[in-house]
Amino acid sequence: MKDDQIKAKVQEQFAKNAEKYVSSATHAKGTDLEAMVQWLQPSQDWTFLDVATGGGHVSKTISPHVGQVFATDLTPQMLATARKHLTATCNNVYYILADAEALPFLDETFDAVACRIAAHHFPNPQNFVAEVSRVLKPGGKFLLIDNVAPLDAELDHFMNTTEKLRDESHGRCFTIQEWSHWFNEQGLVITKSENRRKSFDFPVWVRRTTKTEEQVDSVVNHILGANEATQDYFSVVVTNGEIQSFQIDEWMVLVEKA
């Protein structure tokens, strides 16, 4: 599938589910939102970029601590939904339609950039990292939070297949090693990172993006058909034959432009 087709699929999926991403516990809550402020140590004179803002949770968290926030998203409906929910409380946030792999900003514009739980939808993450480096000022900070694939090829395949069966707009969860390589290519130096485990309430998670019960069944059958070692790795909890929850790997990393 070509890049423009992939991005059109992302727009279609998020346009239909915009409100769900605002209220989703996975996106709206989490210790990572609080940790973002602690890690970034933002300043009131900062100009901040929130890439693929989704429900606007990063912008909402950061806006009280900086001068200006530019919230971008590829999907017009998603961006409009974020604005609707943030306008009353965040008066320094500007909303801009933008492709994460071709950001519409001049070089060295931002003091800091963040992207949370979105990059696995980008078809060319290396281009995204290059764009982040380009728009960051020297010494600027970039905070990435995203689901990551295990190094083990079988576990990687299982995780990404699970995501793709549930969400047709899913691209790929990459490994920490792949992200680290792209950072290094662009002169972005890792200053802090944390490996995390993220739990999903399976019945809620699987129906956020699936279109039919047949699609739900395909995800269920894929997970229940995995071997014991795979189910153990992803902490799959099954009660009376029904999947209750499971866990995936997430990486929170702070880098600085040299």
From TrEMBL:
Q: Which GO terms describe its molecular function?
A: S-adenosylmethionine-dependent methyltransferase activity
All copies of domain Methyltransferase type, residue ranges: 49-143
Q: What is this protein called?
A: Methyltransferase YcgJ
Q: Report the record's Gene Ontology biological process terms.
A: methylation
**What Gene3D superfamilies is this protein classified in?**
Vaccinia Virus protein VP39 (3.40.50.150)
Q: Which gene encodes it?
A: ycgJ
Q: Which InterPro entries match?
A: Methyltransf_11, SAM-dependent_MTases_sf
Q: Which UniProt keywords apply?
A: Methyltransferase, Transferase
| Keyword ATP-binding in annotation | no
Q: What is its EC number?
A: 2.1.1.-
**Highest taxon, organism lineage:** Bacteria
Q: Which Pfam families does the record match to this protein?
A: Methyltransf_11
